User: What shape does this take?
Amino acid sequence: MNEQLRAVFIEALDLDETVDVEKLEYRGIEAWDSVGHMALVAAIEDEFDVALETDQVIDMSSFKVALDMLRELKG
Assistant: This one.
C-alpha cells in the first residue's frame, strides 16, 4: 500500500520521482496547496476505492497520515 500511495502522491501533485513523499507535509511544497490537496484526495479515493470523510480530508496533513487513514479504512 505504501508504494501505491507514493505513486498517487507523485502523480496527483505532479512531483519528480526522486521526491521523498514520505516527508511531505501539506503546504510544505508549492504543489500541495488547497487545490493540490483536493486533487490528491480525489486521486486517493479513486485509486483505493474509498470515500474520505470531511474530517479525514481536513486532517490529511502528511503522507504518513494519509497512509494511516488508508490502513484504517481498508482494514
Notes: Helices lie at 2-12, 34-48, 54-59, 63-74. The chain has a mean pLDDT of 95. The radius of gyration is 11 Å. Residues 34-48 form the longest helix (15 residues).
